[in-house]
Amino acid sequence: MDFLLGIWHTFISLMNTFRLSDGADILIVAFLIYGFIKLIQETRAEQLVKGIFILLIAYAVSQQFKLGMLSTLLSNFFQFSFLAILIVFQPELRRALEHLGRSKLGNYWSLNYMIGDEDTYIQRVRNTTNVVADSVMIFQEARVGALIVFERKTKLGEIIDTGTMIKAEPSIELISNIFYNKAPLHDGAMIVKDGLIYAGGCILPLTRNENLGNEFGTRHRAAIGISENSDAVAVVVSEETGSISIAVNGKLKQGFDKETLKDTLNNLLLQNNISYKGFLATLKKSRGDKQP
């Protein structure tokens, strides 16, 4: 009973000194912990975190039972663990910072500027998705494999540098030539940026998800990989089955036809961009009106 009373008095004492800033501090830390757990779920980092917790428990046990050698060994290990964590969790840390940069707060410092006014931008995106959808239907019927990546907010300059620069207006003939099975660029990915076919034959990172079935080949794994490492949208045509898939945010959805493919691409490429780009266009227009 005295033990419970002691806990109660301690709790009352803490509440008397509790400030609003303490509550905000707790909420922020809880949000960071939740974000970290969500970030490492279903990745290899999850197993590494479990290993670190086991080492922490072992260190606490060695301290409690005065196991000098084990305690010294683990103590020396933890002295250099911060640098090791930065190296081991580099992909997850990079992904977290990219997610932060793609947030609404990050949009205020965005360097993406619209090409022309809002209507021109929308028309350009829709024209590109129409051409891509028509090309994909041809690939589906002919059983030609293809991997087409649409850049959104995350810049894909490093990926573009691995391929051959094209930077041309989209057309069925051009896309068909890129993925012709004897063409030099057909094995890589085609990058679409700002409504243009920007590059072909690009090399993408493969997904780290080890739970994918054997039915998914290199193209599908590369599509999921680029969507895990960026906010890009990847369209895949299976060479074996002709099925059409879209990878976004690390998830792969299959079974698209021409109309659903166009609608989905337009929604993904235009969402969260129109209002911001419209704001930039309005701002530029208002500045222009003030000029003599």
Write the layout of secondary structure elements.
Layout: H1 2-16, H2 20-40, H3 44-64, H4 68-79, H5 81-88, H6 90-101, H7 104-107, H8 118-142, E1 146-150, H9 157-160, E2 164-168, H10 172-178, E3 189-193, E4 196-202, H11 218-229, E5 233-237, E6 244-248, E7 251-254, H12 258-270, H13 274-290
Parallel strand pairs: 1-3
Antiparallel strand pairs: 1-5, 2-4, 3-4, 5-6, 6-7
Please describe what this structure looks like.
The structure is a single chain. The protein is elongated. The chain is of the alpha+beta class. Helices cover about 60% and strands about 10% of the residues. It has 13 helices and 7 strands. A 7-stranded mixed sheet has the order 2-4-3-1-5-6-7, with helices on both faces. Helix 8 runs antiparallel to helix 12.
Using only C-alpha atoms, the radius of gyration works out to 26 Å
- How many helices in DSSP terms? 13
Separation of the first and last Cα atoms: 83 Å
Order of helices and strands: HHHHHHHHEHEHEEHEEEHH
Offer a concise description of the structure.
With 292 residues, the protein is an alpha+beta fold.
Features:
292 residues; alpha+beta; 7-stranded mixed sheet; 12% strand; elongated; disordered C terminus
